[in-house]
Amino acid sequence: MNLAVDIGGMKLANPVMTASGTFGYGLEYSEFVDLNRLGAIVVKGLSLKPKEGNPPPRLVETAAGMLNSIGLQNVGIENFIEEKLPFLRKFTPPVIANFFGDSIEEFAEAAARLSAADGIHGLEMNISCPNKQAGWCIFGTDPKVTFEVVKRVREATDLTLIVKLSPNVTDITAMAKAAEEAGADALSMINTLTGMAIDIGTRRPKLGNVIGGLSGPAVKPVALRMVWETYKAVKIPIIGMGGIMSAGDAIEFLLAGARAVAVGTANFVNPSVTVEVIEGIGKYMEGNAIEDISELIGGLRIS
Ligand SMILES: Cc1cc2nc3c(=O)[nH]c(=O)nc-3n(C[C@H](O)[C@H](O)[C@H](O)COP(=O)(O)O)c2cc1C
Fold first, then answer.
1. pLDDT in tens, 243-294
2. Cβ neighbours of residue 63 under 8 Å, at least 6 residues apart?
3. How far is the C-alpha of 28 from the C-alpha of 36, rounded, in Å?
4. Is 137 among the residues known to form the active site?
5. Over 90: is that where the pLDDT of 210 sits?
6. How much is the pTM?
7. Which residue has its alpha carbon closest to ligand 1 atom 10?
8. Is the torsion defined by CA of 69, 48, 160, 162 positive or negative?
9. SS3 83
């Protein structure tokens, strides 16, 4: 059986990776998961300078999901390279650094710095963050801005470049096409859907930041629909995510057109879920006499 996939020149032994922000910098989960079994390791979103994030409370459970307003807290690129990356170099799966910036310049500089480090194989740019130069509007909700920022990052790196799309848009295929045109090697989708929750006793928001990002099983149908629409609109590979809790969920994403998948919120419920998803995909392939995972990708039967 062959579970290996190629994502923009990056070879993955299997299609299952971790979703940024839900797996720390790898080390935090290494007691629960043999990191060598993962398709790729995606780390928490990084910025040029360390970031403290938003005020608490930053996590709220919802029906079938979770809201978070972590606010992209992270140790910063330099600390990541010096303190976290040496540990990750011991493992065989490709390491993907998720990153973001406040401006197009910051995005480009962050990409250049990460690309100069030894042991990073791919970059995943998070464009669901605000653009300071444009009145704090979100980069990834305008196809022109998406094109611009991806093009600048493309010029700054030779690593595999993955653009992580925001679902908080009317037509995600417009953003996907803009990223592809600007030189992205792959797309990942979806990031969290914006949401909020209110404590009716105090009449206060449940999150310190009022608004947060919804993830988990609640978002899966939306994510699947967006992957399917995007699969039909672009040629570059898609990494699907949003509410994957089991191998069955992951297979749905593959059938909708994702070439790889990422597991996020499920890691908080079951820290060894990633390996269970990999094993479950293998069992499904065996049970259905599928020899190569590529037979599943985009294998949805419509008629
Ligand atoms: C606590 C938390 C932190 C996250 N941090 C990041 C981040 O730093 N960068 C990013 O691109 N996505 C981040 N995400 C989004 C996830 O990577 C993923 O796209 C989303 O949660 C949907 O997948 P899931 O339902 O499996 O969690 C975060 C999600 C959660 C729940």
1. 999 999 999 999 999 999 999 999 999 999 999 999 999 999 999 999 999 9
2. 218
3. 15
4. no
5. yes
6. 0.98
7. 20
8. positive
9. helix
